Fold Multimeric flavodoxin WrbA.
Amino acid sequence: MQPLKVLFLNTSLKSTGEMSHTEGFMNDVQVHYKQLGVESEIIRLADYKIALGVQEDMGGEDEWPEIYEKVQAADILIIGTPLWLGEKSSLATQVIERLYGSSSKTNDKGQAVFYNKVGGVVVTGNEDGAKHASASLLYGLSHIGFVVPPNVDAYWVGEAGPGASYMDAGRENEFTKAAIKRLAYNTYHLASMLKNTPIPAEGNTLN
């Protein structure tokens, strides 16, 4: 079997060169994937020109099609978001919108094009909202065809109010470390199963 591939979409509002606690969190998930022989890549979406809209390609300088190709090549998609005012980032919302723009496309069996891909979420912040953000993103992924295993919403939040973030104070949190491991292993196990035994087309086509 070909090695599994995981794509991380970092929806931090910071571009490359600035510290991203969300990316630090993703790096810790990558450690487990590497041990499992899974290839991984992180894309910092703030580095790209992503047009507003719900089409696969909005034309002009839209760079989403390049990212979409990487989504298509991946077996596992992990969306990572910081929290702002208790909500996922605007870029995280935009990811779901742009993925939704391809939800009517089908694979060679007539299923939604995202069938047999596995989804997960990581959330960081020094304020509440991790479960709310996770619920929103995981529902969005499931609705357009991704399969969501149990316990794939790994997160860390700090104390109420301004304070330390994940890379400052969260990496040794035992709850979060266990959640990171479950995320990696549960997405890996389910993606492996779907690689060998895809969801049957019967009763699962768009037409």
